[in-house]
Design a protein that fits this description.
- Helix content is 42%, strand content 14%.
- By secondary structure, it is α/β, with parallel strands linked by helices.
- The protein has two domains: 32-275, Aspartate Aminotransferase, domain 2, CATH 3.40.640.10; 278-401, Aspartate Aminotransferase, domain 1, CATH 3.90.1150.10.
- It has a seven-stranded mixed sheet with strand order 2-10-9-8-5-3-4, sandwiched between helices. A three-stranded antiparallel sheet has the order 11-14-13, covered by helices on one side. The chain has a two-stranded parallel ribbon with strand order 1-12.
- Helix 3 (79-90) crosses helix 4 (104-115), helix 11 runs parallel beside helix 13 and helix 13 (364-381) runs antiparallel to helix 14.
- The chain is globular and about 65 Å long.
- Belongs to the class-V pyridoxal-phosphate-dependent aminotransferase family.
């Protein structure tokens, strides 16, 4: 037998992806500056020049999370790895953990608790509604031995934001730790890790930071660092053991794994851009574009899932109008406009669309493009009556009345 026996059946050549406009729940459009950074010369992961950049990365992430935690760094892996790192380091078998579930990602937290040997005490809220602090406090009162309270600040599956400050305050009142999911919120909506007293936090590179997927920024308080150091049994994951990773992301630069150097260049550049823009300006930009999108969608009779006070500006979940074919609309948007919007997950499958206005996808021209493409598609399909040009006009009027603040 020769090597030719294993040749692919078809002639495979260089892959060139189409140029899409990504306005779903993630990833968002990667900024050209980030793409340029990714293409820079690869360095060894222990190169002294690279380790200098690592220190800058940690400093920039502290700014993004609004924390002084020394244990702040990007994990090599998507946001799900950051999630698992929090749970696997902080839980020992038998620990009780309150998990707030109001969407898909609360459910994934439960999986992490159980796989780490803990017991999940579930506080359920309706999809599309924020976590109810009263339910959380009731559960804390009934279970004084709870170790951790875990919740999603921004539930990506529904577009709802919960009151992190209040929930963290309850955790402190009842002397337990907090784990908070900020995969969709980091860079797009206010996060004050230290002020709110959050113990462990994780995010993702592919949402409001406009990087490719594959890195998960995390931060841990001194309380968590002490907790992990005092463990009497090994963390149930070698790769995600904070004690081992400290050797690499700390000052000693002990070999742990081959870090994705070029991906870290990209994250560094994205965080430099966030610092240049300023957190407050980034938050305001995301809100301004959300308001314009909302104005345009209203002209088409498209209604939001989440009540106004709890909406994520960067992740807009809306009800699919009656009589409209969900899959066909998304297919046409992709085929005719190279535009991606998100489908519903879990209980919302086939019932909602999710429009992402994250990072580089949260721009005036992309909001207008998205509204025009959706309006034209719905008009062509004849499913509902729309007024051509009304959506973009409504958005323009919002922009004109709400100029960017210097």
């Amino acid at each position: 037998m020769t090597t030719d026996s294993y040749r692919p059946e078809k002639n495979i050549s260089t892959f060139y992806p189409p140029q899409r406009t990504l306005m779903g729940p993630g990833p968002s459009d990667t900024h050209p500056r980030v793409l340029t950074a990714l293409a820079r010369p690869t360095l060894g992961h222990l190169d002294p020049v690279f380790t200098e950049m690592m220190e800058e990365l940690k400093s920039l992430l502290r700014y993004a999370f609004q924390t002084s935690n020394l244990l702040t760094f990007p994990v090599s892996g998507p946001g799900s790895v950051g999630m698992e790192m929090c749970f696997v380091n902080m839980i020992i078998p038998g620990d009780k953990v309150i998990v707030c579930r109001n969407g898909v990602f609360g459910g994934r937290m439960i999986e992490n608790v159980e796989r780490s040997g803990g017991t999940a005490l579930i506080v359920d809220d309706k999809w599309g509604e924020p976590v109810d602090p009263q339910k959380v406090e009731d559960c804390l009162k009934k279970n004084p031995d709870v170790k951790i309270l875990a919740f999603a600040h921004a539930e990506t599956s529904t577009g709802v934001q919960s009151d992190a400050k209040t929930l963290s305050g309850l955790a402190k009142k009842y002397d337990c730790y907090t784990i908070m999911d900020t995969v969709t919120s980091l860079g797009g909506t206010p996060i004050y890790m230290d002020e709110w007293g959050i113990d462990a936090i994780y995010s993702g590179s592919q949402k409001c930071l406009s990087c490719p997927p594959g890195l998960s920024p995390v931060s841990f308080s001194e309380r968590v660092a002490d907790l992990v150091k005092k463990r009497t049994e090994k963390v149930h994951s070698w790769f995600m053991d904070i004690n081992l990773l400290l050797g690499y992301w700390g000052t000693s630069r002990t070999y742990h794994h081959t870090a994705p150097t070029n991906s870290l260049y990209g994250l560094h550049e994205a965080l430099v851009m966030l610092h240049e823009e300023g957190l407050e300006h980034s938050w305001a930009r995301h809100r301004r574009n959300y308001e314009a999108l909302k104005a345009g969608l209203k002209t088409m009779g498209v209604e939001y899932v989440v009540a106004e006070p709890y909406r994520l500006p960067q992740l807009n979940s809306v009800h699919i109008p009656a009589g409209v074919d969900d899959k066909e609309v998304r297919r046409r948007l992709l085929a005719d406009y190279n535009l991606e919007i998100g489908a519903g997950l879990g209980d919302f499958a086939g019932k909602v669309w999710r429009f992402g206005l994250m990072g580089n996808s949260s721009r005036v021209e992309k909001v207008l493009f998205c509204l025009d493409a959706l309006e034209s598609t719905l008009a062509d399909m004849g499913s509902i009556k729309v007024e051509r040009g009304a959506a973009a006009t409504a958005a323009h009027l919002h922009y004109a009345a709400n100029p960017i603040l210097a």
